[in-house]
Amino acid sequence: MRSKLILTSLVFAGALLLPTGLLRSQDGAKAHESYVGVGGAELYARELGNGPPILILHGGPDFNQSYMLPEMDLLADKYHLIYYDQRGRGKSADHVRPEDVTLASDTEDIEKVRQHFHLDSMTLLGHSWGIVLALEYALKYPQRVSHVILMNPGPASRDDYVQLRKDWMEKRPEEMAKRKAIADTPAYKEGDPEAVTAYYRIHFKPALARQEDYEKLIARMHADFTKEGVLKARAVEDRLMQDSWARSDFDLLPQLKSLKIPTLVLSGDHEFIPAASAEHIAQAIPGAKLTVLKGCGHFTFMECPATVHDEVDSFFTGRVPAARGH
User: Fold this and answer.
1) Residue 322 domain-assigned?
2) Is the peptide bond before 70 cis (omega within 30 degrees of 0)?
3) Average pLDDT in the 265-277 region?
4) Does residue 42 sit within a domain?
């Protein structure tokens, strides 16, 4: 977590656990939960809605799907949404050794999820860190991907990751120093929920455009942090960092030029990741559309849910989205 970029919360906000594996979303729609077997572990999955299938890849890489709820569920009025907690995180943590989780295993887990739900092809929607998995999978299994939606993308190359770190150090040196001070405490190292929440309260402050959304995010995080969950997810994150952004030769951008999949890149004008990360991805993928939403930060689906819905609809239909103010 100490090198966190993408960043998310860990709680099922507004969802009520029901018998026989059913969940009820905020608007009353029923969602079904199941588990997908992957090499001795099980991935927790949640689905609802009807229509074209969208597989949603959460950020982190040490968080889980819950921070996207209930706002992302709004898309279930037109689409078949499938979420899952990535291996070693959230409700997919049992029987997982962090040292066994790699970028390759996470990519293959997507394929296992696709097979589990009997999807010939699907849209991949990745948020933040999730865009790395979406792109890795699309490059390996392009025939299985009909569309790609990259929301508030993290870096797709080592160079962009280095630029992000430089940008944060130059623009927010005091906040970076405060984060480091908390990360060095015994409480944080032991996964204490209060210390971890204090860390993310500083980290996420510049990530959202409005105070009320920031407080909502922090409350969700604090409500769901547990020592065991934090420590396992943190160990998984360290493994994945070494397998991606920390690797000197990590660079997906040249490979993206070969993709022939309709792609939408969504970002916000209050994004705390440098705009170049999204721009470089959109420039690399032939025909990709980059849209920067006004009045939105790193959590566009939560901050501007109606606008995000319009943009997704227009991506599939080709119509011009309605103009909205924030």
Assistant:
1) no
2) yes
3) 97
4) yes
In a domain, 9, yes or no: no
Tell me what pLDDT residue 224 has: 80
Q: Tell me, what CATH number does 40's domain have? A: 3.40.50.1820
pLDDT at 47: 97
* Bridge pairing between strands 41-48 and 80-84: antiparallel
Q: Identity (one letter) of the amino acid at 33? A: E
Report the number of distinct structural domains present in the chain.
1
The answer to whether residues 148 and 263 touch, using CB atoms and an 8 Å cutoff, is: yes
Strands of 16-17's sheet in order across = 16-17, 22-24, 30-38, 41-48, 80-84, 53-57, 122-127, 145-151, 263-268, 289-293
Question: Does pTM top 0.85 for this prediction?
Answer: yes
pLDDT, one tens digit per residue, over 123-171 is 999 999 999 999 999 999 999 999 999 999 999 999 999 999 999 999 9
DSSP string, 17-50: E-GGGEEE-TTS-EEEEEEEEETTEEEEEEEE--
| E strand intervals along the chain | 16-17, 22-24, 30-38, 41-48, 53-57, 80-84, 122-127, 145-151, 263-268, 289-293
Residue at 140 is within a domain: yes
pLDDT of residue 9: 31
Q: Return the structure tokens found at 136.
A: 């890795």
Q: What is the pLDDT of residue 135?
A: 98
Angle among Cα 299, 7, 313 to the nearest 5 degrees reads 30
8 Å CB contact between 149 and 266: yes
Spatial separation of the C-alpha atoms in residues 222 and 245, rounded to whole Å: 27
